[in-house]
């Protein structure tokens, strides 16, 4: 049974593989699409057999047609260089194709990665979506947990931001949560009171193990990070889509800001957390398509 879009009252959480869940959603329906996939652990991702082919035939280049030749060549070069990334990208590529199809003409796609994937992904996404569609590389910096003594401790994630149409995308910096000035003595008291507009480097704590937000879901992202994304790149009433919803942070933020959402996760535990966190959403199950086994992918 395909996911029933009209059941989204006011918003929808789908339990299932995100390819199954999204294929019946209408083109261009979402102003924000956020993807926070499991990080590449070096193991092959669990995925449907139909997406594991190395052939570009049937993959994103033939779906979208844009930047096809450059993308194909760059993809080939990078995949030859790193097998583990090949597995990861083969999993992600058809999901990015879907994300792009579902993104509104004034919409923005946010791909949340860790430092090990970010550089390859940037090169591939530029070739795929077009360099002119690249808007930002956001660094989310935190400072928590053990620190290596053998190198600079890695305490950041990278969020790559692409817009469907560089001439038309929605971006409202006025509504974004502001932050304290680093040198408040250098600006007027009015400016200090208002705070400053964040740059592309966001210092924000991880979800506190004892705080209000904590759901217990291991990869939960802080609401403060998602709130800025939703505030800047959508308006009240717009639709927001999260392909890898986990604990439902995107939905919690979208709901509080008056946006509607579709969240997808293949993990039963994640769906259980979202039931508690988002009681007003509708919950449905996406059945696997006939083309593949679509086993559940593991959470990172
Ligand atoms: C890094 S976590 C997302 C965390 C989320 N942003 C949050 O704030 O809680 C990645 C999620 O993707 C889910 N996932 C992995 N493969 C999937 C697939 N093919 N379809 C749907 N969900 C998937 C996992 O179950 C996991 O919950």
CATH class identity: Alpha Beta
Number of domains: 1
Give the number of helices: 9
Main sheet: strand order: 6-4-5-3-2-7-8-1-9
Globally, the shape reads: globular
User: Mind telling me the C-alpha Rg?
Assistant: 19 Å
CATH level 4 superfamily: Vaccinia Virus protein VP39
Could you tell me the strand content as a percent range?
15-25%
Which class of secondary structure composition applies to the elements? Answer: alpha/beta
User: What portion of residues is helical?
Assistant: 25-40%
The molecules bound to the chains, other than polymers, are: S-adenosylmethionine
Query: How many runs of DSSP E, i.e. beta strands?
Result: 9
Main beta sheet, described? 9 strands, mixed
SSE order:
EHEHHHEHEEHEHEHEHE
Fold-level CATH name: Rossmann fold
Distance between the termini: 28 Å
Low-confidence stretches are 43-59, 61-65, 292-300
Named at the architecture level, the CATH assignment is 3-Layer(aba) Sandwich
The average pLDDT is 86
SSE map:
Elements: E1 12-15, H1 18-22, E2 30-35, H2 60-64, H3 68-81, H4 83-102, E3 103-114, H5 115-129, E4 134-141, E5 156-163, H6 189-194, E6 201-203, H7 223-233, E7 239-242, H8 249-256, E8 260-265, H9 268-277, E9 282-285
Parallel strand pairs: 1-8, 1-9, 2-3, 2-7, 4-6, 7-8
Antiparallel strand pairs: 3-5, 4-5
Residues 17-18, 36, 38, 217, 219-221, 244, 246-247, 249, 264-267, 270, 297, 299-300 line the site of S-adenosylmethionine (SAM).
């Amino acid at each position: 049974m395909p996911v029933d879009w009209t059941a989204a009252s006011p918003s929808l959480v789908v339990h299932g593989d995100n390819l199954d869940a999204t294929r019946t959603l209408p083109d261009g329906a979402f102003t924000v699409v956020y993807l926070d996939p499991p990080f590449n652990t070096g193991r092959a991702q669990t995925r449907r057999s139909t997406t594991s082919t190395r052939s570009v035939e049937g993959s994103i280049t033939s779906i979208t047609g844009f930047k096809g030749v450059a993308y194909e060549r760059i993809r080939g070069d990078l995949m030859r260089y790193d097998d583990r990334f090949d597995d990861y990208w083969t999993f992600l590529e058809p999901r990015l194709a879907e994300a792009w199809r579902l993104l509104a003409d004034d919409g923005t796609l946010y791909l949340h990665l860790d430092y090990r994937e970010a550089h390859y992904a940037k090169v591939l996404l530029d070739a795929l979506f077009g360099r002119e569609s690249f808007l930002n590389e956001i660094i989310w910096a935190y400072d928590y947990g053990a620190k290596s003594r053998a190198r600079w401790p890695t305490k950041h994630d990278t969020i790559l931001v692409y817009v469907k149409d560089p001439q038309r995308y929605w971006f409202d910096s006025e509504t974004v949560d502001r932050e304290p000035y680093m040198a408040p003595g250098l600006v007027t008291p009015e400016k200090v009171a208002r705070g400053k507009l964040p740059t592309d480097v966001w210092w924000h704590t991880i979800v506190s193990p004892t705080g209000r937000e904590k759901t217990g879901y291991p990869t939960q992202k802080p609401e403060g990070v998602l709130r800025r994304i939703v505030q800047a790149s959508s308006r009240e009433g717009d639709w927001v889509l999260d392909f890898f919803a986990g604990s439902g942070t995107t939905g919690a933020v979208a709901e509080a800001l008056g946006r509607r959402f579709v969240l997808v996760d293949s993990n039963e535990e994640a769906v259980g957390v979202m039931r508690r966190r988002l009681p007003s959403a509708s919950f449905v199950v996406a059945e696997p398509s006939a083309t593949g086994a679509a086993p559940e992918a593991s959470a990172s």
